[in-house]
Write a structure and sequence with these properties.
Elements: H1 3-15, H2 23-30, E1 36-38, E2 43-45, E3 51-60, H3 73-85, E4 103-111, E5 121-128, E6 139-145, E7 155-160, E8 162-164, E9 167-179, E10 194-199, H4 206-220, E11 229-235, E12 238-243, H5 251-259, E13 262-264, E14 273-277, E15 282-286, E16 290-291, E17 339-340, H6 341-350, H7 355-367, E18 371-372, E19 374-378
Parallel strand pairs: 14-19
Antiparallel strand pairs: 1-13, 2-10, 3-4, 3-6, 4-5, 5-9, 6-7, 7-9, 8-9, 10-12, 11-12, 14-15, 16-17, 16-18
Helix pairs in contact: 2-4
Length: 379
């Protein structure tokens, strides 16, 4: 069968929702379970990155919650420049001090990784620069946004602000940005038949990279033609897809096929990880994280005793507060000297140990080699 015939055969089978023949079939059957996912949930495509436009503007119409220009001369200077550009006769920034109905803000707009076209309308995020208390009720005057500091204006934005419920000094202008230029992105480079897949940080590592490369290559190898392409590992977080010359004319369809390939997550050999999110106050454990025996004492723990103990009565009962919790070892039927970290976290929670102290305990366990997992501290 010719290469063209094999390509048409593979295309027709995919259109019918059928698996490719030969070795790919076993992979698809294994990935059909409840734990199946797809490649695109684990990677991003190089060349399809987001872009961010930035600018500075002024919000007006604030009910006395704006910048205190009497104490902040830079705001008065900004207003002076605004008045001058609009032909208003203000001699000095000092004349504008005392206003509290305006606020200087930064404005950002994120261009999605898929790109955007001239005339598209996007959201903008507005944040206070000075000492304004709130942007509620304010409207952003027309502001130009740029991709680079000295480049031409790439967009403009204006409009009323929807306030962030958790932060009155921050808000969003829905659909207020209008693009003045095209932002085109592509996974394909001129003169190359390679597409780079960047593995998401939570999956990065040679075990996952090799598994992805093997499964992608297996499912692309159709018949004696050599297949539509192959994948190889370039680094712990990088898999490069090379599309065959005869399949290059339908490269978008081939990439789509790769990104939607099913992957059985039970086959992922992910390392045990402890992820600390300080901003959210959350500790997340992945895998069966274990610790070696250790004695932990912190300054926040205390035990109060009354000697001799009073006699309890129905009117005056004794209340017991445990200040220690046993952390047992894993019961796998074999001698073991490790315990589960989840049990330690539960014990610290029972002792009402605060979040920062828990983080300190985890770092000390990791430092002395008692924590058998990767420790990831998010910014």
């Amino acid at each position: 069968m010719t290469r063209r015939a094999w390509m048409e055969y593979g295309r027709s089978r995919r259109a019918l929702g059928l698996a490719a023949p030969a070795v790919a079939a076993a992979c698809l059957v294994a990935a059909a379970g409840a734990s199946a996912s797809d490649v695109q949930s684990m990677v991003r495509v190089k060349g399809l990155e987001q872009n961010e436009l930035n600018g500075m503007g002024i919000v007006v119409g604030l009910p006395g919650t704006g910048d205190q220009t009497k104490r902040t001369l830079h705001v008065a200077r900004y207003l002076h420049e605004l008045h001058r550009n609009n032909g208003l006769g203000v001699q000095s920034p000092v004349e504008l001090q005392g206003s509290d109905s305006v606020a200087v803000v930064t404005v950002t707009c994120t261009i999605p990784g898929t790109g955007a076209r001239e005339g598209d309308q996007l959201d903008a995020v507005v944040s206070v620069v000075g000492n304004a208390k709130s942007l509620k009720g304010g409207t952003l005057l027309q502001t130009f946004l740029r991709l680079t500091k000295d480049g031409p204006a790439d967009a403009w934005v204006s409009g009323p602000i929807d306030i962030d419920p958790s932060n009155q000094r921050r808000g969003t202008i829905r659909g207020g940005v209008q693009l003045l230029t095209d932002f085109r992105t592509s996974a394909f480079r001129d003169g190359s038949r390679e597409v780079t897949l960047i593995i998401n940080p939570e999956y990065a590592g040679y075990p996952v990279a090799n598994m992805l490369a093997d499964q992608i290559t297996q499912q692309l190898q159709i018949g004696a033609s050599g297949g539509e392409g192959r994948a190889e590992v370039r680094s712990p977080n990088e898999v490069v897809l090379t599309i065959s010359e005869w399949a290059w004319e339908r490269r978008a369809a081939t990439l789509n096929y790769v990104l939607t390939m099913p992957i059985d997550r039970s086959l992922l050999e992910l390392p045990a990880r402890v992820v600390i999110n300080r901003r959210a106050g959350v500790i997340v454990l992945s895998g069966d994280v274990q610790i070696s025996p250790a004695v932990i004492s912190t300054r926040t723990l205390s035990i109060t005793r009354i000697v001799p103990p009073p006699e309890p009565t129905p009117a005056d009962p004794i209340f017991y507060t445990d200040q220690h919790v046993k952390v047992g070892t894993v019961d796998d039927g074999l001698p073991t000297t490790r315990a589960r970290l989840a049990d330690l976290i539960e014990a610290l929670d029972a002792l009402k140990v605060d979040f920062e102290t828990r983080v300190d305990v985890l770092y000390e366990l990791h430092r002395i080699g008692k924590l058998h997992a990767q420790l990831v501290d998010l910014p």
